[in-house]
From TrEMBL:
Belongs to the glycosyl hydrolase 51 family. One of its GO terms (biological process) is L-arabinose metabolic process. Residues 407-583 form the Alpha-L-arabinofuranosidase C-terminal domain. GO terms for molecular function: alpha-L-arabinofuranosidase activity. Its EC number is 3.2.1.55. This is non-reducing end alpha-L-arabinofuranosidase. It catalyses: Hydrolysis of terminal non-reducing alpha-L-arabinofuranoside residues in alpha-L-arabinosides. The chain holds residues 41 to 639 of 709 of the full protein. Coiled coil: none annotated. The lineage of its organism: Eukaryota, Viridiplantae, Streptophyta, Embryophyta, Tracheophyta.
Length: 599
């Protein structure tokens, strides 16, 4: 294996090469309030404590929030209610993780014509273990009142529920009940452990909020940024009909921009272009949609005294968010009105924001586009052998014209299991091809990023979580081996071996650093011995004093799990052996050659 680090062949990889794509899929981010296609006719996810003779609960439209009119009406029927009272409870999404000593902020809106005392508790899923409890007096008024209460847990339970009970006969209305841990990342509502896993990928961009989620099966169910900003209580939420669940849009346009900032990643706003899976807006009628997108850009980039910038400022961010990329739709190339709508958006955005890079949905990897674009979107979900061979996909792409944004790639179906080593090997090989072609590939992200283990609509995914645990699949760990490539210097690698058909490799250095990395992927089932040589690199690392990072296993279908979260994770070793079958090896320098035995 030869690394040629001579200056004339060295090339800078774009700063933006590796990032992440967050889609509201698999309950990746959906908040506390749930609904569904029949909203407001059911009370899901609330359940009742009591029986038919003691309590009656239903929804009505008496809320004080004009854009979100559904409220929950609880009528207590009993004069002598059972000990502990009657009421309602909500398990969040498959139980809430309540931890001993931690503080939880409860907000709820209540209306009660008569004076009533509510007991608010955090309990185990069956109500038998009390973790935190307090009583809140509500004085009888026919106006809505906002109540805020801190609850400090006196025990730990991973699948808790929030319950609200009373002994008093009468009617109480509830709306917009929220329970959030006090210790979210930077106070912005994100779970710290999950953010930390994202940060470990060193993402240079964040593409959001979809995917198909942006399109909807029908336009009426597409993501609408305007409905997802402002006070969370006033957001109507919507039914994401592609992934079949209600989202409260508490994780809305503003929060995605905030998340990008928190991650140090460039925001990439994918907006609906008047096209869903099943219906389209005729180009002749697209003007209001174009205006809507221009407003979204003013919301992000406008000064604090502009119309929409002032809304952002009122939400707590007077400084603009640096939106430099937008994608005009998702997977819509070929739809009847795509090209016509695209041009309307493109021209209007170019005029108002000449520096914004626009991403077309049409693949230009093998033939030129018939419309202007700065980047084109490229998605691939396939089997491992095909993806391995696709490391050469961009070798023959035109060096002129728009650059590729590989915004969704993954091995799926039988090769993938629920995230296998085999899948990650093929993906790693594919990424070496993107690095090699990073003169024409500007960005790449794996998809999907997150899955709540209780709703695995799409399989596989990079990060699996439940209410209190999380782990990375091999595809996640594979990505951590590539994060440092963004902005690095690429050096060509050639492999001359009878096994070269199942090997892939890439080498990088940094402008202002002595370090270099060589990554080698053995996709085959035989161990391979390679002699490594490098021209143009100093022997900078002492082989005995350095370590290699390895992802490997004796079984290519090995997966991680909550009980064994690190079965497949990168590990470091000082052993000096051969490149084992089915492995990714990252060497800090091409003059050391090491392997980890852990897996
Ligand atoms: O990543 C899952 C889905 O795959 C995305 O929503 C869509 O863009 C693609 O079809």
């Amino acid at each position: 294996l030869k690394v040629d680090a001579s200056p004339q062949l060295a090339r800078q990889i774009p700063d933006t090469l590796f990032g992440i794509f967050f889609e509201e899929i698999n309950h990746a981010g959906a908040g506390f309030e749930a609904g569904g296609p029949h909203t407001p006719s059911n009370i899901d996810p609330w359940s009742i404590i009591g029986d038919d003779s003691s309590i009656f609960v239903a929804t009505d439209r008496t809320s004080c929030f004009s854009r979100n009119t559904v409220a929950l009406r609880m009528e207590v029927l009993c004069d002598n209610c059972p000990a502990g009272g009657v009421g309602i409870y909500n398990p969040g999404f498959w139980g809430m993780n309540i931890e001993d000593g931690k503080t939880y902020n409860l907000v709820m809106y209540v209306k009660s014509p008569e004076t009533v005392e509510l007991t608010v508790s955090l309990t185990s899923s069956d109500g038998s273990q009390n973790l935190a409890s307090t009583t809140i007096p509500v004085s009888g008024v026919s106006n809505w009142t906002k109540l805020e209460q801190k609850l400090v847990a006196q025990g730990t339970n991973r699948t808790s529920r929030l319950q609200i009970t009373t002994n008093k006969k009468g009617v109480v209305w509830f709306d917009q009940v929220s329970l959030m841990p006090a210790d979210t990342y930077k106070g912005h509502g994100f779970r710290t452990e999950l953010i930390s896993m994202m940060l470990d990928l060193k993402p240079r961009f964040l593409r959001f909020p979809g995917g198909c989620f942006v399109e909807g099966e029908w336009l009426r169910n597409a993501f609408r940024w305007r409905e997802s900003i402002g006070p969370w209580e006033e957001r109507p939420g919507h039914f994401g009909d592609v992934w079949h669940y209600w989202t409260d849009d508490g994780l809305g346009y503003y929060e995605f921009l905030q998340l990008s900032e928190d991650l140090g990643a460039a925001p990439i706003w994918v907006f609906n272009n008047g096209i869903s899976h099943n219906d389209e807006v005729d180009t002749a009628a697209i003007a209001p949609f174009v205006k809507d997108v221009l407003d979204s850009l003013e919301f992000a980039r406008g000064s604090a005294d502009s119309t929409w910038g002032s809304v952002r400022a009122a939400m707590g961010h007077p400084e603009p968010f640096p939106v430099k990329y937008v994608a005009i739709g998702n997977e819509d190339c070929g739809k009847k009105f795509y090209r016509g709508n695209y041009l309307k958006f493109y021209n209007a955005i170019r005029e108002a924001y000449p520096d914004i890079q626009m991403i077309s949905n049409c693949d230009a990897s093998s033939s030129p586009l018939d419309h202007p674009a700065d980047l084109y979107d490229f998605h691939v979900y396939t089997d491992s052998k095909t993806l391995f061979s696709m490391k050469n996909t961009f070798d023959r792409s035109s060096r002129n014209g728009p650059k590729a944004f590989v915004s969704e790639y993954a091995v799926w179906r039988s090769d993938a299991g629920r995230g296998s080593l085999l899948a990650s090997l093929a993906e790693a090989a594919f990424l070496t091809g993107l690095e090699k072609n990073s003169d024409v590939v500007q960005m790449a992200s794996y998809a999907p990023l997150f899955v709540n283990n209780n709703d695995q609509t799409w399989n596989p995914d990079a990060i699996v979580f439940n209410s209190w645990q999380q782990y990375g699949t091999p595809s996640y760990w594979m990505q951590t081996l590539f994060g440092e490539s963004s902005g690095a210097i690429f050096h060509p690698v050639t492999i001359t071996s009878s096994y070269s058909g199942s090997l892939a490799a890439s080498a990088i250095t940094w402008q202002d650093s002595e370090n270099s990395f060589l990554r080698i992927i053995n996709f085959g089932s035989d161990p391979v011995s390679l002699t490594i040589s490098a021209t143009g690199l100093q022997a900078r690392v002492n082989a005995l004093g350095s370590t290699a990072t390895v992802l490997t296993s004796s079984n290519v279908m090995d997966e991680n799990s909550f009980s064994n979260p690190n079965k497949q994770s990168r590990c470091k070793s000082r052993l000096f052996l051969t490149l084992s079958p089915h492995s990714i090896l990252r060497l800090p320098s091409p003059n050391s050659w090491q392997r980890c035995e852990a897996a």
